[in-house]
């Protein structure tokens, strides 16, 4: 079972709109078979005044990321990035690896699909 955390970044975007973008992404990703998606909900540090706002603007996907599933998730993320020149998406794996996508070139799409595929291979090896 693979897992990744996805967060959307866009300069000068109010928190409410950022929350709406994550909701939209969650709906789009729910159409991809083989994965589950949920919002990250974690406790804020005790000295934090902002609460859990930063964590709420992050999605967690889990599932078996086969080649087809990784390609479908990649297409959804690239489509989201393409809607605004100031938008980027960061994907983090539990092993600490991360990738930030801010364009839609074929090379970026390949890198993102390989990033997801590598997580699926790591998870499969760990389950053996």
Question: In words, what does this structure look like?
Answer:
By secondary structure, the chain is of the alpha+beta class. It has four helices and five strands, in the order E-H-E-H-E-H-E-E-H. The protein has a five-stranded antiparallel β-sheet with strand order 2-3-1-4-5. Strand 4 (87-92) and strand 5 (98-101) form a beta hairpin. Helix 3 runs antiparallel to helix 4 (106-127). The protein is globular and about 35 Å long. Residues 51-55 and 122-128 have low confidence and may be disordered.
List the helices and strands and how they pair.
Blueprint: E1 2-10, H1 15-30, E2 35-39, H2 53-56, E3 59-63, H3 67-82, E4 87-92, E5 98-101, H4 106-127
Helix pairs in contact: 3-4
In short:
By secondary structure, the protein is an alpha+beta fold.
Low-confidence stretches: 51-55, 122-128
**N/C terminus separation:** 12 Å
Quaternary organisation: single chain
Helix-and-strand structural type: alpha+beta
Sheet with most strands: strand arrangement: 2-3-1-4-5
Q: Specify Rg, calculated over alpha carbons.
A: 15 Å
Count of DSSP H/I helices: 4
Mean pLDDT: 80
Largest sheet: 5 strands, antiparallel
Beta-strand segment tally: 5
Helicity, as a percent range: 40-55%
SSE string: EHEHEHEEH
Strand content range:
15-25%
Shape: globular
